[in-house]
């Protein structure tokens, strides 16, 4: 939400700037950027412990702590600039996004009983996205063009390197060893931000993006856990992004002197 408030606030500050006419044109562009995202997924995960006890004693509860995630993205597409007040620029293309390996960690509470919070665990997640996107610049205010965008595509979500350790005074158990798993899932994103014209070929963009990367699960574990898996639900991020766009064979917009 911090990123969204920043983008909306920046847009409001620009409303008093006079609009300039866009020169018509169209052409290809490439874009590269990076960002930081706040992950969002299940606050707890439950795994059947094989004890045969009645619920909820038959489940172990895994709490989840979230760390800021780093992403990079590359995109290429086509852009249409038109001489009109509203929606002066439209663009569409193909984007690749990579979510660097990020750690989910927490406490394992056996039998769902607080007095049996005996272990801590770590679990690594990593994702890649290939998607088609569209962006609409709403208006132009001097060098600034606020935008809305969105994308749909495929995500490859990898969960791996499950590890657990016992707290002091607790006898270590045999680890479930939940196995490496990569799954393909549907992904979509929604975003808003501001394009800033630097030169007739280069733009700098500041934006907010919400992305649903799809579900995040492990493969089954070993021994007692051979029919069980970790499931964090839908992995989502709220990200602040900075990107640079280069235009081929066209200019961004006329600039004030």
UniProtKB/TrEMBL annotation:
Signal peptide: 1-21
Keyword hit for Lipoprotein: no
Phosphoprotein is among the record's keywords: no
Domain Outer membrane protein beta-barrel: 13-247
SUPFAM superfamilies found in the cross-reference section: OMPA-like
Gene3D superfamilies for this protein: 2.40.160.20
Keywords: Signal
One Pfam family, short name: OMP_b-brl
InterPro entries, per database record: Beta-barrel_OMP, OMP/PagP_B-barrel
Name of the molecule in the record: Outer membrane protein beta-barrel domain-containing protein
Species this protein is from: Legionella taurinensis
């Amino acid at each position: 939400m911090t990123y969204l408030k920043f983008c909306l606030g920046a847009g409001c500050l620009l409303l008093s700037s006079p609009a300039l006419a866009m020169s018509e044109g169209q052409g290809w562009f490439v874009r590269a950027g990076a960002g930081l995202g706040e992950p969002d997924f299940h606050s707890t995960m439950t795994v059947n412990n094989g004890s045969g006890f009645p619920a909820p004693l038959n489940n172990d509860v895994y709490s989840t702590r979230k760390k800021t995630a780093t992403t990079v993205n590359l995109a290429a597409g086509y852009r249409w600039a038109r001489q009109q007040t509203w929606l002066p620029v439209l663009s569409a293309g193909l984007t690749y996004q990579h979510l660097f390996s990020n750690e989910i960690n927490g406490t394992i509470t056996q039998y769902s009983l607080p007095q049996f919070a005996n272990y801590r665990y770590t679990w690594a997640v990593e994702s890649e996205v290939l998607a088609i996107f569209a962006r609409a610049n709403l208006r132009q205010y001097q060098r600034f063009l606020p935008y809305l965008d969105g994308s749909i595509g495929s995500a490859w979500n990898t969960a791996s390197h499950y590890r657990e350790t016992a707290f002091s005074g607790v006898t270590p158990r045999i680890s479930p060893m939940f196995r490496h798993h990569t799954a393909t899932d549907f992904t979509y994103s929604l975003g808003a931000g501001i394009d800033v014209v630097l030169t007739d070929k280069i733009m700098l963009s500041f934006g907010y993006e919400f992305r649903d990367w799809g579900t995040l699960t492990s493969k089954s574990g070993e021994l007692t856990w051979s029919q069980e898996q970790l499931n964090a639900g839908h992995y989502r991020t709220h990200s602040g992004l900075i990107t640079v766009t280069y235009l081929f064979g066209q200019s961004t917009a006329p600039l004030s002197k």
